[in-house]
C-alpha cells in the first residue's frame, strides 16, 4: 500500500472574504480566471472537469476545455454521441470543477446542460484548425476501435477527401451550455481553515451567498 498521509502543504497565497466579492458568481469567476491567467501557471487555465451520471448509473468525470463563459453559463464542445454526450442527453444535471493549483483555488459549478444553437456550434467549429475539424469527424468518440492505426488511416482518407475543400461540422458534434444553479468558490487557507463561499440561484434571478465551513 502506498501511504500518502504525509502529503500536505500550507495554503497561504490568498483569501476570500464577503467584503470583497460581487453579487453574482460569474463576475467572481471572471476575476479569478484572469488572475490565474495573469499569474502564469504551467497548465491550461480553461481546463475543467466535467462530471455526469452515466447510463450505467455511475458518475464519471473527465477533463475538457472551457471555450466560453458569460452570464448565461459555461460552454464546452464534444461529440454528442460520446459517453458524456449520451449521459447528458439522459440526465442534464452536471458538475463542472476547476482546480487552479498555482493560486490554491477551486471552483465547483452545479448546473443544467443543454445543447447550444447550431449557429454557435458552427461558428466555433469553423474557427478550429482543419486537423481538429477532421479529428472530430473521424473519431466516433468513446466507441471501441481495433487500433490507433485504424484512426490514423481513416484520417488520411479524410485528408485526401477534403483537400482544398471546406470541412462541414458533423451533426453529432457541437456545444453544451451549462446554466449554473450553484457555484462554490474555494480558496486554500492556512491550518485547513479554507474559505468556501457558495452562490445559489434564486427564483428572482438573484444569488444567495453563504459561507461554508472548511
Automatic annotation (TrEMBL):
Substrate binds at residues 67, 124, 128, 132, 192-194. This is Pyridoxine/pyridoxamine 5'-phosphate oxidase. The gene is pdxH. Its EC number is 1.4.3.5. FMN binds at residues 62-67, 77-78, 84, 106, 141-142, 186, 196. HAMAP family: PdxH (MF_01629). Residues 173-213 form the Pyridoxine 5'-phosphate oxidase dimerisation C-terminal domain. Residues 45-157 form the Pyridoxamine 5'-phosphate oxidase N-terminal domain. Transmembrane segments: none annotated. Belongs to the pyridoxamine 5'-phosphate oxidase family. Its cofactor is FMN. Pfam families: PNP_phzG_C (PF10590), PNPOx_N (PF01243). PROSITE patterns: PYRIDOX_OXIDASE. Keywords: Flavoprotein, FMN, Oxidoreductase, Pyridoxine biosynthesis. Binds 1 FMN per subunit. It comes from the Bacteria. SUPFAM superfamilies: FMN-binding split barrel. InterPro entries: Pyridox_Oxase, Pyridox_Oxase_CS, Pyridox_Oxase_N, Pyridoxamine_oxidase_dimer_C, Split_barrel_FMN-bd. Homodimer. PANTHER family: PYRIDOXINE-5'-PHOSPHATE OXIDASE, PYRIDOXINE-5-PHOSPHATE OXIDASE. Catalyzes the oxidation of either pyridoxine 5'-phosphate (PNP) or pyridoxamine 5'-phosphate (PMP) into pyridoxal 5'-phosphate (PLP). It catalyses: pyridoxine 5'-phosphate + O2 = pyridoxal 5'-phosphate + H2O2; pyridoxamine 5'-phosphate + O2 + H2O = pyridoxal 5'-phosphate + H2O2 + NH4(+). Pathway: Cofactor metabolism; pyridoxal 5'-phosphate salvage; pyridoxal 5'-phosphate from pyridoxine 5'-phosphate: step 1/1; Cofactor metabolism; pyridoxal 5'-phosphate salvage; pyridoxal 5'-phosphate from pyridoxamine 5'-phosphate: step 1/1.
